[in-house]
Design a protein that fits this description.
This is Nucleotidyltransferase family protein. It comes from Elstera litoralis. Pfam families: NTP_transf_5. The protein is α+β, with helices and mostly antiparallel strands. It folds into 2 domains: 57 residues, no CATH class; 164 residues, Beta Polymerase, domain 2 (2-Layer Sandwich). The protein contains 14 helices and 7 strands. The strands form 2 sheets. It has a 5-stranded mixed β-sheet. α10 crosses α13. The radius of gyration is 19 Å and the shape is globular. The model has no long low-confidence stretch (mean pLDDT 93).
Amino acid sequence: MLPIGPEADLLRRAALWPSGKIEITADQIDTLDRRLLLELAHEHRLLPPLFGAIEASGLAALWPELRAAQQRESMRALHQAAVTLRLLDRFEQAGCRALVLKGQALSAQLYGRADVRMSSDIDFLIDPAMMSRAHEIIVESGFKPFFPVSVENLSFVNKDQAYFSGKIMIELHWRLFDNQAFLPWSFEYLWSNRSFVSLMESKKVPTLPRDQHIFYHTLHGLRHGWQRLRWLVDLTIPFQNENDMKNLFSLAKEYNFVPAFLHTSILLQEFFPNIPRNKN
């Protein structure tokens, strides 16, 4: 997941920002391979917490390249949020029920702010009955589909369609996994229990219920072998919350994922041994 070295060690500790505080000194900054650390932060979607931790230590002025990178990321995130809101508005006007997945929605749900998690795309879970209309709306909004087939045909073998416009990518999901039986939640169930989070000021968007969102996020990370440290970092929040852990393991029992969740708990303890742990 991370190479061995002081850059990876600092990134792992800084990754817990804003929920955790770390001590960073000017001497540490001076001895690091800053280019490597920036590359790792981008790769693992951890630029915001790295900058936040450096800034909280009063050392941001010593690393202007990091500040510039974070400013670019902030602008990109604002643009991403604006596109999300614009498409949700168009979906609503067309009668397409849609939930925002992962990305900024999960960031707001876990951290109370939408800018902690970096995301390369915008994910929507659409009412399957309206996926053709949702596809039309996205294309009419200037995005080009990645797969040159209809969403009806694609839905037989794939969980989503990807779209591109400039540097913005959208994934339109009609189910959470390619195999619906892997996590058999109906859209009606998720919509009926949806949560709302703020992306920009008072603008609220619908997303998965907290427990189901974290559970889905965990399975997503497991299926991808925890390729990005960001995904594992996110689980340190529910890992420290008794109610979250109780609900997550209840879902794990219901869907036969207890061994996978125990493995994830062990992995969390190995990567972040100093976080307070819920002992229940």
